[in-house]
Amino acid sequence: MSEHVISDDSDLPAPAESLPGARVARTRKPPIRLIYVPGLGDRMPPLVHLQREALRSWRALGVRTTMFRVRWSSDASFQERLDRLDALVEQFEERGERVALMGASAGAGAVLAEYARRRSIVAVIIIAGKFLEPDDIIKPVLERNAPFAESLSTVPKLLEELGPEDRARILSLRSARDGVVDDDDTLLEGAVNETMRVVGHVIAIGYALMFRARRVVRFLREVATD
């Protein structure tokens, strides 16, 4: 697995002229806005609430978070929901924020598709991602979640547009054994792939949000300073 460690110097003073009375200037980088896209459970209020609460703790790490729900079980097309996500990204960028995306399970497909569309996104995090191989999903699930089914046929083609530098800005977190998503499907060639010491699909998502926040934020700062 690949991992790059680059120190973040956003709070360090810029060099000052060695003249009497010279003032030390501080360079402040634009804030990072992390947009989180949950998976098929985004229709279940209790699950949405738990994920929102987990994301609240990220504020203490200096990252602003926003949740975007695809509403996978809606009648909207994947492209329509992707357009809404893109509009949200543009809104934050126009405010001067650096935008990163994080998607869990089915949400991984949405953030990867948006990244392929808008390369100004500074980083992408996927957790227990399912964005390949629609044949692995039982037909009733695909029928109830049409945008998800559409994403599984759309995203693989979009991934072909991502070069080595683009993929190096993607962090994929996966469980040691998922049980829902095929373990090989959670790997993305060229990305930073990391295996967490947990077993299970839902457990991996919760663990990442609660206990891998510092790792994710460190990754965001590393790639955002490249």
Automatic annotation (TrEMBL):
The UniProt entry, under InterPro entries, shows: AB_hydrolase_fold
Region (Disordered) residue ranges read: 1-23
Protein name per UniProt: Serine aminopeptidase S33 family
Q: Which organism is it from?
A: Promicromonospora sukumoe
